[in-house]
Amino acid sequence: MGAWIALALLVIAGAVLILRHDAGTIAGFDNADIAGIVAAVALLIFLGGSMFSGYRGRFIGAVRDALAWGVMALLLIAGYSYRDQIMPLAQRIAGELMPGAPIQFDTGDTKSVGVRIRKQANGQFMAKARANGAKINMIIDTGASTIVLTPSDAARAGIKPEALRYSVPVQTANGTSFAAPVRLTNVSIGPVSIDNIEALVTKPGALRDSLLGMSFLNRLRSYEFSGDFLTLRS
Known about the structure:
The protein is an alpha+beta fold. It has two domains: 2-81, no CATH class; 100-233, Acid Proteases (Cathepsin D, subunit A, domain 1, Beta Barrel). Helix content is 38%, strand content 29%. The chain has helices at 2-19, 31-52, 59-81, 83-97, 151-156, 214-217; strands at 103-105, 114-118, 126-131, 134-140, 147-149, 168-172, 175-189, 192-202, 210-212, 222-226, 229-233. Strands 3, 4, 5, 6, 7, 8 and 9 form a seven-stranded mixed β-sheet that branches. It has a four-stranded antiparallel β-sheet with strand order 1-2-11-10. Strand 7 (175-189) and strand 8 (192-202) form a beta hairpin. The longest helix is centred in the first third of the chain and has 23 residues, at 59-81. It is elongated and about 80 Å long. 22% of the residues are buried.
């Protein structure tokens, strides 16, 4: 029965478009809007009839499921309506659960973007960064004059460590070592992004983790350590 009602409504919608294509509005709606509304009602009747036929004799179950779907629809609509307010909260929760994940915030300036990074339990600021598009975890180190990549991270960024010339002396926890100068197309932490940036690649075993040094930080609009957070703005 529902299918026949839906078909009849679709016929009516088509007739409205054909017979009143050059007419005015009806109750403030133009003909295309009315046809669209009628077609949507027809679709709901058709789908509803098919769905609720399975609940024949189970009225309470049908009402319960209908309410559940209605609540889900309202939650989706509310989530979409308040997405600008919900997104910062979701990013903050992600930052708490995954230290190093950038938490984007509104800088109040349309020409600027900013992120915050939460300190890890060991007291270090580890950033989930990207170098040449590759995901690389980097310790933010203001004592490093430049970005320093381990050979494995350099390889992920598209650099061939075996083809480099290691001529720059660097101080590491294991003493003096040598690194090779390179230039990265892009380094980013969330939306904070710097292009064409100098870096070094160390020899194997010289560093445990890659470092995000001053060659990146100095090109930002600002960076600030405050409590358990590091704030970056570009």
